[in-house]
């Protein structure tokens, strides 16, 4: 039943590498940009120490808009921007543009929710001791919510894995592209089953790794 897999071994290895590349770039973008945006949303929200209603509403609206769009629509809508940034709309590098944008919006919201679980008394105590905004951010807020943030990164990574498969529909490369080109167009059922199993295995590995790290960081 799985005879086609042996002949496609190089293609499978290449597809896995492309998926890994897409995840690496998009998750990195989410961590570097999404976390600061989540912190910004938290501090400028209603009742917070740096409340800025106008800035919060604008940022909140942009994040909600991106998160509300189905990824396949966002993928197509961002084609002009993707072409401008990377010079092409095909391949794993091109797919990282919409993947990074959606991952930033997704993680920023999860980070904001994690920070809202921090008791306000902790922040007020830090202010009372004369802590600066930077100290409050790094040594209080992010330190208290680090396990929740890591859990958010894990959830974001798993969601992005499914999005990378979806990107294969429009030539984004990766495991999804392999499933479409061989499993669907050529009716190679064994390839389709293998790609599904592969994605499931990756999800379990990511979830297990994330859960393990969260337990180590969780001080409760």
TrEMBL record:
InterPro entries: AA_ABC_Transporter_Permease (IPR051322), MetI-like (IPR000515), MetI-like_sf (IPR035906). It is a multi-pass membrane protein. GO terms for cellular component: plasma membrane. It comes from the Bacteria. Keywords: Cell membrane, Membrane, Transmembrane, Transmembrane helix, Transport. Pfam families: BPD_transp_1. The keyword Glycoprotein does not apply. This is ABC transporter permease subunit. Belongs to the binding-protein-dependent transport system permease family. CysTW subfamily. The keyword Transmembrane applies. The lineage of its organism: Bacteria, Bacillati, Bacillota, Bacilli, Bacillales. One of its GO terms (biological process) is D-methionine transmembrane transport. Residues 16-210 form the ABC transmembrane type-1 domain. Gene3D superfamilies: MetI-like. It is found in: Cell membrane. The chain crosses the membrane at residues 20-43, 55-79, 85-107, 149-171, 191-214. It comes from Paenibacillus validus.
């Amino acid at each position: 039943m799985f005879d086609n897999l042996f002949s496609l071994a190089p293609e499978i290895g290449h597809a896995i590498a492309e998926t890994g590349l897409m995840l690496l770039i998009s998750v990195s973008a989410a961590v570097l940009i999404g976390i600061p945006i989540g912190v910004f949303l938290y501090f400028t929200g209603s009742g917070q120490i740096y409340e800025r209603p106008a800035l919060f509403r604008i940022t909140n609206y942009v994040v909600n808009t991106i998160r509300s769009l189905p990824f396949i629509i966002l993928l197509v809508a961002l084609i002009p921007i993707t072409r401008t940034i990377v010079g092409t709309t095909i391949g794993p590098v091109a797919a990282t543009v919409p993947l990074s944008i959606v991952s930033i919006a997704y993680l920023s919201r999860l980070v904001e929710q994690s920070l809202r679980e921090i008791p306000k008394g902790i922040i007020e105590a830090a202010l009372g001791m004369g802590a600066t905004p930077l100290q409050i951010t790094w040594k209080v807020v992010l330190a208290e919510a680090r396990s929740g943030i890591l859990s958010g990164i894990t959830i974001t990574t798993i969601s992005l894995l499914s999005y990378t498969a979806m990107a294969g529909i429009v030539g984004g490369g990766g495991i999804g592209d392999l499933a479409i080109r061989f499993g669907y167009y050529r009716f190679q059922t064994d390839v389709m089953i293998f790609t599904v199993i592969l994605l499931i295995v990756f999800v379990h590995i990511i979830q297990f790794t994330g859960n393990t790290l969260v337990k180590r960081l969780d001080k409760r």
